[in-house]
Amino acid sequence: MCGGSEDVWQDKYSLPRQTTMFIFKKILVFILTLESRLILAKYKPYIIAITGSVGKTSAKDAIYCVVRRQYKYPRKSEKSLNSEIGLPLTIIGVPNAWHSPFGWFSNIARGLDLIIFRREYPDCLVLEIGADHPGDISKTVRWLKPDCAVLTRISRTPVHVEFFASPEQVFQEKSFLARAVKPGGKAVLYADDERLIALGRELKDRNISVVTFGTSQISDVRGGYFSPVYTDGILSGMTFKLEMDGSSISISLPKVVGLSHSYSLLAAAAVGKAGTIPLETIIPGLSEYVPPRGRMNIIAGQNETVLIDDTYNSSPDAVESALETLISLETSGIKVALLGDMMELGSYASEQHRIVGVLAAKIVSRLVTVGPRSRITAGEAKKSGLSSDMVHSCDSASEAAQYIIQFLKPGDIVLIKGSQSTRMEVAVKALMREPDRAPELLVRQEREWLMKN
Questions:
Q1: How crowded is residue 290: how many other Cβ atoms within 10 Å of its Cβ?
Q2: What is the CATH number of the domain that holds 406?
Q3: Its pTM surpasses 0.90
């Protein structure tokens, strides 16, 4: 599964050491998974499990804000720990010990303590579950049976498709989570995808309650009237309307922009509806939502500019959504896109980078790219009408930032996005008005990540 910050397991040691670490990790996963199974069997928490291609972490955080008003002691996956090792860590309630053997032994001991003794344990778990290889979810649901499964948007060309036979296989892998819901359980599905609507019909036939969310008219929880917000002429957030059970509520989200955040709150409201949480309880919960870092966050840039930090990861659908967000934004300056490579697309990589180039040429005044794959994006943008002197390609995020600094003027908006390995947060830090706030505002600021620079 996709491991977020757990990727530091890779590429750090010599081949013999990597082999040893691989074996150690496999043993560790086996032990922690076994402990997790025993803990769940003993304490029987209500399990809400979330998957999808776009917006899993944001949805997880928003859902937690709602359910903690109903449950006494809920727990959620921290950051994006959604892998074969991250999932047991959440269930046991211990941190990632990274490369510390003592830390891992301590985590195992904590699991044993929960199994042997009766301790206080969460009555609700909100778990994010990723899938970057075939079998990741189908294997997990052999032992993890959700009471409520949430499926967010599943891209037509999703990240990690490189490891699957086709995009449809990715969809099928993620749909295993919904099919694993306990009898009489709940499924919350993204309604703007006909594939998920069809899945919902299948689930209803199996006595699983289905609640949908999205922007389509058939959504049980619907969003609309999306609008950016400006403070003194500067982009500062967004608003939208949430419609549910005959009510229409205005929702404000400061310091972020883009439909992805509204979908996360719609998903959270749908989980509340599925769990019969009253609307007057759901809305205050949504107001406590704090968007995760690196997901369309608005950050003050140098020279009175605005940065839109979308650097957590990248995929074709996510880039398209981010670029289309720029269309609705008003500014006295120009719109700039700084785009890094989209990884793990396999045979779809060239085509998808070309598509991004065509779209970018229609929306931005200047395009800067990072990485060899994104040179295809740059070339296609030129073919599509963006002037050659308005397109520039770089080898690294830091190089790109230094290039952009030369032409930034007050009022400019810079969208920054790329896959994890492109480390586009380095560019955000270089362009921020207050770079000393990077540990507070940016992704991948842990020591283990910074050591990889």
A1: 11
A2: 3.90.190.20
A3: yes
